[in-house]
Specification:
The protein contains ten helices and ten strands. The chain is an alpha/beta fold and 252 residues long. Helix 3 packs parallel to helix 6. The structure holds adenosine-5'-triphosphate (ATP). Adenosine-5'-triphosphate binds next to helix 1.
């Protein structure tokens, strides 16, 4: 079976310091894949290799082979702007642009030339906000600032912004850690609804969340991928002692 993403023997360094050690992982289109592990184990660093977000960190160096639909994303021919539209990202802290709700969503499709006119752009905006579960709450106030929304709404706006450029993969880096339990539950429902349409990879500190939203779980420790498999197996029948120790709360 072909995978959406193949990462093979990936190492990441910040200067002299190695943050990721020889990680290989395959991500499937139809799954939500969760990355878990104690603070500093490299979950975010590895996630950011998947759309070359580490390119923005001067000291970061990535080695290894990462493919999206078989295409080497670190090849010199890869257009990074295009890559980041195909592999979108949602961050820990909601970060809407200080612009209107409409503009937050319309910006990407406009710069990527995805709409041939205003009507088409309006359709993309409505569709993206609908998919992100936000349309009914904002349809009468599209010209209000995105930053005036609640934290949970801002995060759904950021998801709508990622969706608007028609991505294949959505990376989420602790998307609920700044949200209250109700807003968190809405994002988890949304992840459930988006599953299948986009391959989703989520970093989470919250093991219950990983168990609720994902089909596959990868457990990282000290920059290594200790164990990767079906979420159910990882949480009920892990193969590695280090995984057992983590999920039973012995450290981290
Ligand atoms: N920009 C950076 N420059 C130097 N070192 C960094 C940088 N970003 C991360 N690191 C280091 O790389 C290691 C992995 O960090 P990373 O943020 O990927 O871990 P994490 O598992 O996502 O942690 P957390 O759950 O706390 O966010 C840590 O030792 C961290 O200090």
């Amino acid at each position: 079976m072909s995978h959406k993403i193949n990462a093979h023997n990936v190492n990441v360094f910040y200067g002299e310091k190695q943050a990721i050690r020889n990680v290989s992982i395959d991500v499937d289109q139809e799954d939500v894949t969760a990355f878990i592990g104690p603070s500093g184990c490299g979950k975010s660093t590895f996630l950011r290799t998947l759309n070359r977000m580490n390119d923005t960190v001067a000291s970061a160096r990535v080695e290894g082979d990462i493919r999206l639909d078989g295409e080497d994303i670190y090849s010199k021919d890869m257009d990074v702007v295009q890559l980041r539209a195909r592999v979108g990202m949602v961050f820990q802290k909601p970060n809407p642009f200080p612009k209107s709700i409409y503009e937050n969503v319309a910006y990407g499709p406009r710069i990527h030339g995805l709409a041939s006119g205003k009507a088409e752009l309006d359709t993309i905006v409505e569709q993206s906000l609908t998919r992100a579960g936000l349309w009914s709450e904002v349809k009468d106030r599209l010209s209000d600032s995105g930053t005036a929304l609640s934290g949970g709404q801002q995060q759904r706006l950021c998801i709508a912004r990622a969706i608007a450029v028609d991505p294949e993969v959505i990376l989420m880096d602790e998307p609920c850690s700044a949200l209250d339990p109700i807003a968190t539950a809405r994002i988890e429902e949304l992840i459930h609804d988006l599953r299948g349409r986009y391959a989703i990879v989520i970093v989470t500190h919250n093991m219950q969340q990983a168990a609720r939203v994902s089909q596959k779980t990868a457990f990282f420790h000290l920059g290594e991928l200790v164990e990767y498999g079906d979420t159910n197996d990882i949480f009920t029948n892990p193969r590695e002692q280090r995984t057992t120790d983590y999920i039973t709360g012995r450290y981290g």
